[in-house]
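Bench notes, afternoon.
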Amino acid sequence: MIVRSHMVDAPVFARPADPLRAAHQRMLDHDIHHLPVVDEGQRVIGIVSEHDLVVPRYLDRQRTTPEHFVLTDDATVGQAMTPDPVTLRASDSLKQALDLLLGHRFSALPVVDAEGRLVGMLTTKDLLLLLRDQLG
């Protein structure tokens, strides 16, 4: 089994300059928990998750607590994203995908073509749905 058969085609994405509030709304609107971040050429340059919005890495944790964090249009996806994320190719095996997800404790991986352009997303939810279907 390969990634292409179980990934989400044409995933929702964000750009680095997008406001975090808009990215969060996009996640809510599409019932997703991760957004790949792409440049103008659609190449994956980062990923942002709901967790990044709850406990942002860019805040000074000595002075600011998550309770004081409010999504504003001043904070951008580029500030909160994890840069250079681990990615998959559509031709990779699902075993390779599982090894990456489990080994890195990820719950989503962008799928890219040979030039690094976004072509899909594979999440633990996708794999759980496959397992459910296999179990009948």
